[in-house]
Amino acid sequence: MNLKNASVLIIDDDLDVLTAVRLLLKTESKEVVTEKNPENIRNLLSKQSFDLILLDMNFNSSINTGNEGLFWLRKIKELGSAAAVIMITAYGDIDLAVRSLKEGAADFVVKPWHNERLIETIKEALRKKDAGKTSAANGKGDKIIGSELLGESEIMQDIFYKIEKIAPTEANILILGENGTGKDLIAKAIHQHSIRTKNAFVKVDVGALTDSLFESELFGHKKGAFTDAREDRIGRFESASGGTLFLDEIGNISLRQQAKLLTALQNRQITRLGANDAVPVDIRLICATNVPLSELANETRFRKDLIYRINTVEITVPPLRKRADDIVLLAKHFIKIYTAKYMKPNLEVSAGAIEKLKSYHFPGNVRELQYTIERAVIMAEGDDLQAKDLLFSPIEAASSEVNDEKEDYKLSTMERNTILKVIEKHNGNISKAAKELGLTRTALYRRLNKYDI
Questions:
Q1: Average pLDDT over residues 438-445
Q2: pLDDT 10s digits, 172-228
Q3: pTM of structure
């Protein structure tokens, strides 16, 4: 259906929202009806049929505390309305909005929105209504978002849909998840779907920066600001201005570093080391950490005012063991990459190899799967990749071994011993050791410090 011929009902207890949407759609649609009180939905639908309904997720009347939108969505469906329903939500209710898609909503929009984006969403919902199509969030969406992020499991489809809705906004985003789950790929996908996509995407592993390097790396420095400052250098904030700044391992920075970062974010300007003049910066901030939010809430570890600043929207990336439906998809993706890299184009995966992958719990997540596949492709002989070619992380293998000798069975002891063996195997080469262990260099260095190696 063409929007010009559509009757639209808007239900929101915010008069400003009602006025703004009515004025926007007045010339775009056949008819616009606004309603502040959701209790009047029954009466409205009994008198008139609508092609599209814009429904707020939360009302002051608190019918179902935090779930008012879902309550009224169900009522609209029970009343037999054939209207496409688009949920209106704030950042904090995005998870509920994704849930609404499973209950029959056509789509959702996040406040505040760009008018052009809202009209596009309405037109698409009307088109899907005519075509009888279900939304991508019902688990039938694309298997890839951005250029690299893969997944066909329901939990990843929810994340894909959330990315599509959050990305065009300017909201700061905090990505949570275990090491190796692909938090950096989530950040890239958000940037690629944002209005800043044509500008820079700058990544900084802030967890690896010492106090002395932190300011210079992020804010830049003037020539002579310190001993090795032989020339002026812009920092990552300036490099990312107009684009997206991705701060990885944000949960591992010191309280002093947090204070410096908070000041820059609040003022939206930075001052290079050795300079007096402040430089304005325009960045979209994405942060990531493997530290649970509950630990970040501890003020002896992390400033709450900084948490609120970086966490307008939160995305939790599931470990691979909770998205087992994606293991084969990801494995085939990596096989395609590494058969091309190692010139084994005819290599096929045996049924036994697939079963072995599906039965493993992948404590090292997607990164461990990637390294496992790379090793298997290298070791495979002939045209078949066999189960015996799949060798999982030695750290995880060591922690699950059981023998009858009297040994210290603490996981920490076993992990320390495994790290020592692998480093010795590679003659102290940290990069090679980290790769075999399925860790990043930064993560391995943290373990070296932890175990005093």
A1: 82
A2: 999 999 999 999 999 999 999 999 999 999 999 998 898 878 989 999 988 876 777
A3: 0.71
> For residue 371, what are its two tokens?
């390294």
The separation between the first and the last C-alpha atoms of the chain, rounded to the nearest angstrom, is: 67
Four-point Cα dihedral 215, 221, 226, 232, nearest 10 = 160
Cβ contacts of 253 within 8 Å, gap of 6 or more = 206, 207, 209, 214, 261
The CB density around residue 155, as the number of other CB atoms within 10 Å, is 15
d(CA 172, CA 166): 10
Domain 3-138 belongs in CATH node 3.40.50.2300: yes
Query: What length does the chain have?
Result: 453
Q: What amino acid is encoded at 313 in this protein?
A: V
Name the superfamily (CATH) of residues 397-450.
Answer: Homeodomain-like (1.10.10.60)
Q: Are 265 and 226 in contact (CB under 8 A)?
A: no
C-alpha 93/C-alpha 67 separation (Å) is 9
Cβ atoms of 36 and 18 closer than 8 Å: yes
